[in-house]
Amino acid sequence: MGNRGMEELIPLVNKLQDAFSSIGQACNLDLPQIAVVGGQSAGKSSVLENFVGRDFLPRGSGIVTRRPLVLQLISATAEWAEFLHCKGKKFTDFDEVRQEIEAETDRVTGANKGISPVPINLRVYSPNVLNLTLIDLPGITKVPIGDQPADIEQQIREMIMQFITRESCLILAVTPANSDLANSDALKLSKEVDPQGYIGVVNRSQKDIDGRKDIKAALEAERKFFLSHPGYRHLAEKMGTPRLQKVLNQQLTNHIRDTLPAFRSKLQSQLLALDKEAEEYRGYRPDDPSRKTKQLLQMVQQFSVDFDKRIEGSGDQVDTVELSGGAKINRIFHERFPFELVKMECDEKEMRREISYAIKNIHGIRTGLFTPDMAFEAIVKKQVIKLKEPCVKCVDMVIQELINTVRQCSNKLECFPMLREETERIVTSHIRDRESRAKDQVLLLIDIQLSYINTNHEDFIGFANAQQRSSQSVKSQSSAGNQVIRKGWLTINNISIMKGGAKEYWFVLTAESLSWFKDDEEKEKKYMLPLDNLKVRDVEKSFMSSKHIFCIFNTESRNVYKDNRTLELACDAQDDVDSWKSSLLRAGVYPEKTITVSRLVESETTTATDNFSMDPQLERKVETIRNLVDSYMAIVNKCIRDLMPKTIMHLMISNVKDFINAELLAQLYSAGDQNALMDESQEQAQRRDEVLRTHQALKEALAIIGDISTSTFTVPMPPPVDTSWVGGTSGGRSRRPPPSPTRQAPP
To answer: Where does the GED domain lie (predicted)?
Structure first.
């Protein structure tokens, strides 16, 4: 009907579509849109209907098109229409299509000629169309009517420009033949984005439309008009709807051919990516017992290799988002566990009170002259017992990471659900079995420490040197003061907005100070904060912030940084916060102690808490034992920090690796039917079929494209129009009136 000039493209697009529809995919050639632009009652709808070959658009005076109509033409074997807002409903009567457009327009804009940029989406399926998008836009108007706003002209202009400024948009500027061509608003808008020549067409008059004159008869009348009219006779071959369709056909064909090279490259890349997988699936027999046995062995071996790589580290498949596997366990050993040990330390005042009570209770009714060994042992044993909780917690954290690693490695077994389930169950059960042994051994380490307090240890200061401990500590700190413990970026979170707000700096932590610089070149130092009397506390994360925050404060209630009582520091991840807090521990900056409710109640009901005092002799004994406890607990902590990773590594991690490598396959064989283990999932069967069909469709599409010439062709454009013939134009020579782009010639 109205678009026979485009029929040469239909076989190409249909073949490609057939190839892709077999796999449920679309052929994305990104064909251009055609936007019809013109004033009110200029004949836009008639031009649009010529391409569809059907009467389906509303008619009338004033602004009839009050919402953009996005019309998608889809090549099909039958003819029907569908609206996006009426999903599932097919329209075979195009009079009903017109009525639905009118009803949907009124639903959004009302019945008083209001407009809306919200488009109506209509699809027309037909054997006589090429996949294409057409857009019917509201007619350009200058005078508002009804409920239309005063800026109706500007609103319509902006709406039109949104469409015609797109690179893939072909503009059809429609101007009635009985209007002043030089003042055509449609041409002015079009020339702003794409100046071109003109093609004239003869649309049906209102009388023709009312008389139901069909489009075929209208095209014959149009041809007769151009051949017989003295003003257009010499340009008859460059006028009319067929000519317009031919020019558009050229544009569309060239666009497709320009698009094909990139489209072909994309298809070739997809084909190459699927080649290896498709080759594996050819001749694949899901129920072959020998295949199942071989694949079971391969899967278990791959699982073992993946687990080993995740624990020991590997250069391939590196996770760049977060720590996992061996790296996470390493952090647990050397950052989280030491931090948990320090958190178990008791309050200084509480420690001294316990020592004084121990000394007094050991002396009993008598006043002792010497510092009792038993008081030292009692306090040390109480501190050692406290180590059980962080040690058990360390085992729990490692176990959780091992289980997470097992689940990550089993992701590759998702094609075989039963195999994945059994593998996770067997390995996790083994990990849980080793858990009890590991915890027993860890608790045994603590019990060993409790069984014998070795005061002859070479690192123990002894009673004779206990009084000199403070001075020795100062000297050792002085010698290590310049040692860099950690460097990295942190955000100072509590800088006022007046002073620039939160800002990121490069921080350097040593044994004596925390300094920050403008950047990691460390040339411009912003501040140096001594670590004396500093402690760390957590800060609750704000619901508006993605940062994780901790703060440093002075235990003597002094300002830490300029006028700030605290220095709030922020990191992107909680792991970074924990790591910095562990580094601060090494520098002697400890976390704030948490007072429980029961402890608080006890302190309020015990008058001795606030009024506790000691005589000078007892105070010297307490100080001596306090120094001895510090010295001995440093030895115990050092020993535990060294033995814990070794114990867990031997009893847990290495054992699990050996189990997976040596026993997992045998356990799977004894678990049940091996054939059932290797039954593939429904998703995997669908995946295999999809890969094979996609691979075949890609080959067919490339073969189709390979037969097409990619050179563009040109149909001569009509000559540019000399508008000097328009009445009132001076200095111009009188010429026959040429047609405009889809200019509606008078009958």
So the answer is: 622-713
How far is CA 603 from its chain centroid? 52
Sheet holding 80-83, edge to edge: 80-83, 120-126, 69-75, 132-136, 33-38, 169-174
Strands 80-83 and 590-591: unpaired
d(CA 618, CA 625): 11
pLDDT digits (tens, 9 = 90+) for 243-292: 877 777 677 667 777 777 877 888 888 888 888 777 777 766 766 677 77
For the record, the structure tokens of 651 come out as: 């009893």
The sign of the CA dihedral 497, 500, 504, 510 is negative
Taking CA atoms, 100 is separated from 41, 68, 107, 303, in Å, by: 21, 14, 10, 60
Residues 6 or more apart whose CB falls under 8 angstroms from that of 86 comprise 100
* Phi, psi (degrees; rounded to nearest 5) at 38: 175, 175
DSSP 8-class letter at 491: E
Please state the domain count of the chain: 3
The candidate with the shortest Cα–Cα distance to 308, out of 651, 645, 646, 661, is 661
pTM of the model: 0.50
Bridge partners (DSSP) of residue 535 are 553, 590
Contact 333, 582 (CB under 8 A): no
Beta strand pairing call for 120-126 and 80-83: antiparallel
Output Rg (C-alpha) for the chain, integer angstroms: 42
Q: Residue 76 corresponds to which amino acid?
A: A
Alpha helices in 214-240 (DSSP H): 215-228
What is the spatial distance between Cα 644 and Cα 442, in angstroms, rounded to a whole number? 7
> What is the per-residue pLDDT across 33-84, written as a single tens digit (0 to 9) for each?
778 888 776 677 777 777 777 788 887 665 677 888 888 877 778 889 998 8
Q: Which among 198, 232, 260 is the end of a domain?
A: 198
One domain, residues 340 and 400: yes
Decide: 735 and 722 in contact? Cβ < 8 Å: yes
Question: Does 519 lie in the same domain as 392?
Answer: no
> How far apart (Å, rounded) are the C-alpha atoms in residues 75 and 731?
51
640 with 584, same domain: the answer is no
Mean pLDDT of the chain: 76
Residues 6+ apart with CB under 8 A from 85: 104, 120, 121
Residue-range definition of the domain harbouring residue 98 = 33-198
Give every CB contact of residue 456 below 8 A, 6+ residues apart in sequence: none
Q: Are residues 577 and 627 in the same domain?
A: no
